Amino acid sequence: MNRKFIALLTYIILICQLTVIPTATAAQNIEDLVNQGKLTIDLKVNHKEQQIVGQALILAIEVSTDRWFATGSQIQHFTLKNVVMQANNITTINGSKRIKGQTWATQTHEITLYPTVSGAYQIDPIHVDISVNTEHDGIVSGELSTQESSFNIELPKALEGIENFIVSPQVTLNVDGQFDEEKNYAIGEAITQTITITANDTPAMMIKPINLVANNLVAASLTANDKSTDNKVVSDKATLDGVSIYHKPAQVFDKSNRGTLLGTRIESFTYIFEKPGRYVIDEQVIYWWNSQTNTLEYLLIPSSAWTVSDGGLSKISTANALTSFNNFTIKSVINSVIIIVLLIFTSLGFIKRHYLFALYNKVTKREQRLLRSEFLNAVTNKNYLIATQYLYQYAVFQNKQTLAAGYSQAVTLNQLAFYESNTENIPLSFSVSDAKVLISKIDASISKKEDAANFTPKERINLNSD
């Protein structure tokens, strides 16, 4: 009897163990997996020995499970004050590790930050969405948070008082479009200066814009009565003492070269000369902290100086303007009369309609206007080869000859047309503003030749030399 009772008691205990133990260890949520030691999360701050302002800093969040991930883990959006984060700044690395002889699956999320000020930073818990495929309970999903953490950012003494600087192991500067100090530029001419800055291991968003601010651009008049100079801030489109400055929107982009991040910023300024004078742009300094040697270095955008002359026409500018106005008024009246007479003759049947259209096109310069429009459209679409063809036809319509030598814009356009298949690899640019300047030069040269009969022989020599 005792043996039967003992056997029955043993059987009951075994049944209780089979039913009670799994229920006690079942994982209903993510926290259960953590409490059972089957899931871990850890946050590490991977910083340099000297972590400074503007230098990349990486937060590494590692999620580990003794099984495997179902849909993986994902970092929820979070913010951190005085820190710049790129849109796609998280890199996820899948891996594994051994814990007490067992293989665990891991997912490591590396978040790149760029602190903008020095001091202590506090990291609040970062929330992570996790989904794990368990052994007995299927897929368990939920949210897990990292522990609080902190880090410190320094500002070396050499950088104190410097507002803008780049942190990189290597920074390069290229300036295309230098002014010729020995040359006398004419009114209406233009120079486009393109400044390209490239930094290794640094995103382009960390390269500050280049602005022509006070004390950078000084215009000194050539007239004896005006010896004052003005310093002004130059905006995207500004006029400063006879020079119009057009600032194109900056090109900011990143690319990878053999695993190395390259940030590039391209700034382009076009200077159109409107008045005679002596102009000077002071040199500009680009500071950068060499993260390899931990030293301050700098690059120089060289100063520029140039002179704009009036081409010998200043003495007769008033008379010329009056003559041009009178000629314009007389021509307008004559053209109106001609059109009215042609319409009358056509209505009476004396002139055929196609002759009228031909005369109308000639009087209104319709072909020239169409060619000018097509030329500007081709430049807008960066179809430089077609643009050169329209420009040649426009020049022929205007003065029955090819383009005069010495137009810097025409030279640039021809170079772009020749290298049209690979324009990204040459440091040239030709904008719609450049195209309009070139058109105005052609029109201006024609106006000068048409009005040359009204000038003295000495004035005609000045016109030809211009």
UniProtKB/TrEMBL annotation:
Residues 1-26 form the signal peptide. The chain crosses the membrane at residues 333-351. Keywords: Membrane, Signal, Transmembrane, Transmembrane helix. It comes from the Bacteria. This is Aerotolerance-related protein BatD. It comes from Colwellia psychrerythraea (Vibrio psychroerythus).
